[in-house]
Every structure is written in C-alpha cells, then in structure tokens.
C-alpha cells in the first residue's frame, strides 16, 4: 500500500526531467537563407543533445563540453539561456523536411522546415501607347518559383479581380514552376500596370511594372472633323492676330507714301524748271520797274507778287531781264496781234507748280 504513492512520485519526477521545448514548430525560408531552431530542456539533467536534419545526424552537443566537432560545415549551434540554438547557415531544397532535437535517453521533439525558391517576374513587351477606348493586352511571366507562386495584377495600385485575367502553370524537371498570365485593359486614361508574384517566405511580392499611355483620337468622316475646341480657338486667334498685324503694317506704309509723294514731286518739278530756265535764257535780273503798254496798278501789283514767288521757289537761279522795246507803237501792234483783245499782255515768264 505504501509503494504506490512512491511510484507515482518517481514517475512525475521523470516526466518533469524529460520535458523538452522545440521552437519554432514550422519554419519557412527562402533557399540560401539561414534556418534557426531552439531546443530548451526543462531541466539541466541531460547529457547529450543530438540534432538531426531529414533523419540524418547533423550536429552533437554535450552538456559538459559543448558543441562537438562536425563534418558538416553548413551547421552550427549557439548556447542560449536554458538551451541551444541550431543554425543551418545556407539552406538548400534538399534540407526541406524534419528537424529533430533528441535528448539522449530523455525526450525528443521534431519541427518542420520548408525551403522555397524565389524566381523572377516580368511583364513582357515595352510601354504601350493606345487610343482611348482601345483594348490593350498585357502578358506576365513568373519563372523559376517553388512552390507555385501567387500571381496578381494591379492597375494604378488597385488589385484586379481574378475573373479579369487567366493563369497557366508549367512545372520543369527541377520542380520549378513557371506561370503565364494575360490581362486585357480598356484604355480609359494613362495608367501603370503591375504584375506581382510571391511565395510565403517573401516579405513582399516581386513586382514588374509597365506604363500605358492613352491618347485621344481625332476622327474624320466625310469632311467633318472632331477637333478639340481649345485647339481650334487658339489657332483661330493666332491667325487673326497675324492678319491684323499685316493690315496695320500695310496701312502705315500707305500713309507714309501718301505724305511723302507731294513733297517729292514738288522738289522734282522745281529742279527741272531751274535747269530749263538756266539753259534757255541768259543771265540777268528782273526789271521790276518795267511797265507794259496799257498796264494798270493792279497788273503791276500782280506782276510784283508773281515775280516775288518765282524768286522764292527758284532763288538759286537767275531769271533773265524782261525784254522791252522803246517803240511802243510797234510793240503794241505786235502784242495786239498776239494777245486777245479782252486781256492785256504781259511780257513776264510764269511758273506753275503741278
């Protein structure tokens, strides 16, 4: 009767000594990254800790000595508070499987290691140019992934629904997956289109971006053109401004020519008259005291002012003396024959400006 409680006490002590914690229970890493597992015994009453990867011994740790030499250079162990951390430095696809911590003669625990492969993603082709309302097809390829990645599309950073694109998958001999997807986008406005691929071990998806530039189309049917109003108005205003400038310049030139013409004609006539007067008559002076037969004071006054005007216009030329005769009867008869009876003749040279 007294031995039963003693057996229960010994069994409980055995269980307490044999308690073991292995964390994490599941670990997923990318190929080439480090994998870390920590084994923590509940008691320090153990002798040897053995780490196994895929059922094969990878590393041995002694409670008294520490880490024993290993033939595998890719593994190591670090002492932590209350336990040991097992480190697999460069994970490969063949490392995927079970990782076991075995306390010899006490307990053992197993965790699961998953190794994933990061591939590439690319939207095929170059940036696109399309007319408004046109349907544009995009193709994305995600190659060299393990396991099969999750592929998504985004337009202007907004996720596209699964029903709007298709996905096809192909597995290579190395158990690597290649996905191909096609997306059709209606060109409404200029946008950027993203294709994203990811696996669970990636902190964020890989992304490939391409741009879609949308332009408005000018339609022409039967002579009717649909042209933006702003462009038409600007062009019309520009042409009107040019026409106004041309008219202003022409009017200004015409006014200048109209002002300059009379002065040029007057100078020309005066010059011609001066030359002809010099060539046709001898030099002399105007005889202001000459009085023709039958002349009156009015005629003398007119003669004086007319001669004065002639001297003003052609002051640089000398006008010949007025030819007169002492025989008033002979001159009067000749003048009577040459002049009309209603007017008195004057032997004076006149100048007319046209």
Structure description:
The longest helix has 52 residues. Helices cover 27% and strands 36% of the residues. The chain contains four helices and 21 strands. The strands form five sheets. Strands 2-10-9-4-5-6 form a six-stranded mixed beta sheet, with no helix packed on it. Strands 12-19-18-14-15 form a five-stranded mixed beta sheet, with no helix packed on it. It is an alpha+beta fold and 354 residues long.
- Summarize the biggest pleated sheet: 6 strands, mixed
Strand content: 35-45%
Number of strands: 21
Q: Mean pLDDT, nearest integer?
A: 76
Strand order of the largest sheet: 2-10-9-4-5-6
Q: Helix coverage percent of residues?
A: 25-40%
Poorly predicted residue ranges:
1-17, 272-284, 290-301, 311-354
Topology order in helix (H) and strand (E) letters: HEEEEEEEEEEEEEEEEEEEEEHHH
Q: Using the CA coordinates, give the radius of gyration.
A: 61 Å
The rough form would be described as elongated
Can you count the helices? 4
End-to-end separation in angstroms reads 164 Å
Structural class, please?
alpha+beta
Task: Furnish the topology, listing elements before pairings.
Layout: H1 3-17, E1 20-23, E2 26-30, E3 35-41, E4 48-53, E5 56-62, E6 66-67, E7 75-80, E8 83-88, E9 97-103, E10 107-116, E11 120-123, E12 128-131, E13 135-145, E14 150-155, E15 158-159, E16 165-171, E17 177-186, E18 191-198, E19 206-215, E20 220-221, E21 224-225, H2 229-280, H3 297-313, H4 328-338
Parallel strand pairs: 2-10, 12-19
Antiparallel strand pairs: 1-3, 3-8, 4-5, 4-9, 5-6, 7-8, 9-10, 11-13, 13-17, 14-15, 14-18, 16-17, 18-19, 20-21
